[in-house]
# Entry
Amino acid sequence: MTGNRTFTMVKPSAFSQGYTGQMLAMIENAGFRIKAMKKTRLSEEQAGCFYEMHRGKPFYNDLVAFMSSGPIVSAVLEKENAVESFRTFIGATDPAKAEPGTIRKLFGKNMRENAIHGSDSDESAMRESGFFFAATDLF
Ligand code: CMP
# Structure
């Protein structure tokens, strides 16, 4: 899965506020095809493992607590140049700095509760997809 797939999660705050449907509609309208998707909830241990690369950073503990605080929707998306294209589409990590019309600008509250996750590289997309889905789940 290099080049044309990325991984995303609707974060707990966006899910609990009922934004999932609107966000998914925007994602599909932008040409991303849903290859796999599920509603789930991360344990603290799972969230800590998912964000392992941020362990030790000042925001890590709060991020892990937040990401395990409620349901999420995780998905694998397909489009040409998926990782970069999706990151541009969702906007900057900080919603205050995100471009108008992006998901994070529309639905994000702050750096932590920024509505949605998007993989930062093809390698991350593969790892993150494998965290939630088996190869046979992707079709
Ligand atoms: P995400 O795309 O899920 O990847 C890592 C997450 O860490 C990021 O979105 C933010 O929610 C969070 N994050 C990154 N930097 C900070 C920060 N300086 N303060 C709080 N949260 C952060």
Remarks:
- The chain has a mean pLDDT of 97.
- Residues 2 and 122 are 6 Å apart (CA to CA).
